[in-house]
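Predict the 3D structure for this chain.
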Amino acid sequence: MSSGGLSLVRRAVEAVRRTPRWQKRLVIVTVGVGTLTYACQDNQVLQINDGTGKKKVVIIGTGWAGASFLRNIDTSLYDVHVVSPRNYFTFTPLLPSVTCGTVEARSIVEPIRNIVRKKGGAFRFWEAECYKIDPNNKKIHCRSDNGTNIDGNGEFVVDYDYLVVTVGARPNTFNTPGVVENCHFLKEVEDAQKIRKSVMKCFERASLPNLTEEERKKNLHFVIIGGGPTGVEFAAELHDFVNEDLAKLYPDVKKHVNISVIEAGDHILTMFDKRITHFAEDKFKRDGIHLKTNFKVVKVSDKAITMTNAATGEIAVPYGMAVWSTGIGTRPIIMDFMKQVGQENRRVLATDEWLRVHGCDDVYALGDCATITQRKVMVCACIACSIRKNHTSHSKIIIRNSCSFANTSPLKIKNVLGDIYERYPQVELYLKTNQMKDFHDLLKDSEGSAIKESKELDIEEFKKALARVDSQVKMLPATAQVASQEGAYLANCFNRMRYCEENPEGPLRIRGTGRHRFKPFRYRHLGQFAPLGGEQTAAHLPGDWIHVGHSTQWLWYSVYASKQFSWRTRMLVVSDWGRRFIFGRDSSSL
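Done. Predicted structure below.
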């Protein structure tokens, strides 16, 4: 080593010797803690606890189900943690209005921290994505884009006592080539903002000089794939935007605008009453919106959409912008979780009537990522009815797994099956559909008249009646209304958990003794709307009440304004509607 290098080492050693002892210890402790932190950072488990012994409830997602649960949960009873890639809730029914500037994006979002700000209690929020659920160890693995670790990968693990999964769903492309690369979706606020920019770019491109008529028509051909509520509402909003606002700003190219709705089925809005479906189709034809029913899209390129039809065969249609709205698919985290709990062959998570995931403990799933697997009355009646045999009368019997029934009276059956209405929603649905008052009306004799209570009923007739009821079993629709009610229901169960442990209020258990803690979830349908443009909306309300017209549009305004999560967003949405009436929609590309 050179003399210069030796002198440098001597000076360093001398400096260390002169350093006070307390400073040496501080350096050693600092380096040790830093090394230990770095070694443990990748597998760090967040076990934050307030020291009160409260159970930790972890919520994944801030959609309708998650926000509704968070809005109703008593945070003084639990240590509540929320993990979501978005720190806000979005009022998704108004997303089509955001695409055309009728409503601004910030008017329909509510920060999650605002929802619980006045509730008090323990609450924490992490802006991260949960990519794995570990039900065996009661942990979830998360990843943040912000980068919280030394190496910047942002991964951490959170433990839980109760897990509420509300991650929603993703758009279903049916593995159609080119959809992800060339089509817009309409699930998030960011999607609506991208569509709005794309619409304006199409008009600006069509206004450029030196373009042929075919090129202008291509740029102004807007295609919506999917004739469901979202696709129909967006088509109606776009039609109003073009005719009420853009036609005045782009008079030279307005004649080239073409809006097409492609639907694989026979009709659009098939989940609505047929009267609404026919009215919507007639109105779209009058407005110049082209409906292409019975067409299946097989490929989407950057220049054309290829679709097939039994009559025309395969055709390619050039387009300027395409929006894909054909339903929902399963998120990767849910597919991985279903494999862990033995549900790999399902489309969504299966839960019971209390929203508990089958196959694991203390995990609940609500919203679009799950569905309730409703038991059939016939199966449960064969397992659990206890119509005990009376020593003095043969009108009462015991129903066992063998289903060896004898004759009995409808009155006795009605008395024994008192929990049916509460546990089996298909019973009420069947009675309402067939305009029956109660279970006794279901028991008809061969001539179609109601059987008297004193008359004995052959058990085979009773089994046939139950089979007709079970034919009404339906999965709940993947709507905001269902998710919101599920969130509120589960929060109420959590709030009353301690009381219901001592005072169960649910139906009798099919297997085992006693009653369930809570009443099962019951969806209450409050109606649905289908805005069709031109200040006209179709409404299908409870009681089979159908109405279409301008008056229903004002009902739509009032309902959607009242359903906002806060007075802030309520005032913003109403002011946006007022601004649109006075000044029209904003046509900037922002």
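The CA atoms of residues 378 and 466 lie 6 Å apart.
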